[in-house]
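Hallway conversation turned thread

IA: we were arguing at lunch whether anyone had actually written out EAL domain-containing protein end to end. Turns out nobody had. So, for the record, here is the sequence (253 residues) and right after it the structure tokens. Reply here if something looks off.
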Amino acid sequence: LDLEQQMRDALEKSEFEAYFQPIVRLADGGVTGYEALIRWRHPQLGVLGPGQFLPAAEATGLIEMIDWHMYRLAFQAAPALLGRDKILNINISTGHFHSRDFPQRLLNLTAQAGVALDQLCIEVTESSLLSDPDAAAEILGRLHEAGVRIALDDFGTGYSSLSHVHRFPLRTLKIDRSFIAPLGQAAQQRSMAIVSAVLSLARSLDLNVVAEGVENTAQRDALLSMGCTHGQGFLFGRPAPLGTGASLRAGEP
Ligand code: G
Ligand code: G
Ligand code: NA
Ligand code: MN
């Protein structure tokens, strides 16, 4: 059976699952939100991560059905996970982001699910923005006007578009984990410089910042010393299904 047919079957049999990873305030570890991350509980191969099937889903166009399925799963979990003030981050692939009715469908589903628009954050990548900047500005403009937050994912790995960030209605920059990994080590100088530059850019544009891939206290302390306010990573919690430990415990106030 080819991967495409397997993914179609997996949708029918509900083998895709939403895992959630906390996003925290670095100062006190308090959870401010969760990112929903897709997993495939494959009957033969075990739990697969997005890298193992999303590229094929994108190539075949199945990504749209898979994303909507994920958003429904994430929205079902939202009341228990978020309470009144936490934020739910969801991901979208470039091809899907540029599909005709994405923003309206997202707003409809959000309303249907009873998720507050200002508790929803959509993570987009620089390649989604730069593949068609005018279209992207219109899509993000609609979501922004409706109150949805927009985060730029993996910041620093793409065109790192200091020139582009101000063009879109962004709320948050997520600094890619490749810049966080060296922090606290001997060779941290260049990463420190880049992270500092992103933080000062964010301050001057009034954007929030989340450091991705925070794995140890040395990295957290280096980030705090530079004035970074928020982080995500194994130090604070691994992606986990709702109700199986990490996410739920971390979700308690
Ligand atoms: O969970 P993991 O770190 O392996 O995720 C890797 C990548 O998969 C991330 O870039 C993330 O943005 C993407 N991803 C995770 N869940 C989804 C999803 O539901 N839809 C889409 N389109 N991408 C996702
Ligand atoms: O593209 P995106 O940044 O959304 O991908 C997030 C991916 O990073 C997920 O697949 C998640 O499993 C992974 N991840 C989350 N926290 C950490 C971490 O602390 N270290 C590493 N190496 N990966 C992480
Ligand atoms: Na993401
Ligand atoms: Mn990311």
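OS: looked through it. Confidence is low (pLDDT under 50) at residues 246-253.
IA: good, adding that to the notes. The pocket of sodium ion (ligand 3) is lined by residues 35, 91, 123, 153 (CB under 6 Å).
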